[in-house]
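B., you asked whether I could sanity-check this one before it goes into the benchmark set. Here's the sequence:
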Amino acid sequence: MSNKKTVLGIIGGSGVYDIDGLTNTRWEKIESPFGEPSDELLFGELDGQKMVFLPRHGRGHKIPPSEINFKANIDVLKKARRDRCDLSQRGWLFKGRIKTRYVCDC
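And here's what the prediction gave me:
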């Protein structure tokens, strides 16, 4: 078993463009053969947990639901070397814990 710490990948829902309390943050553009993802990825840590966050509609809600490139979004999270991808329907954040409605192993 690997000692590598898990990196949690999150796709935020409508109105969620970043994660409060995230430290050591940086935005990074990652390319995909499936086209443009919704936005750059936000890397950081929350209470010691490494995370990669992607705002599903892009920062500022620039992309309508019918135009979201889901394949590119999942692909860039994989390239970010995350180990688990949580798809958040509403992106609820409460006291440093992330509540999700849908979880996938991508």
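One thing to flag: The mean pLDDT is 75. Otherwise nothing jumped out at me.
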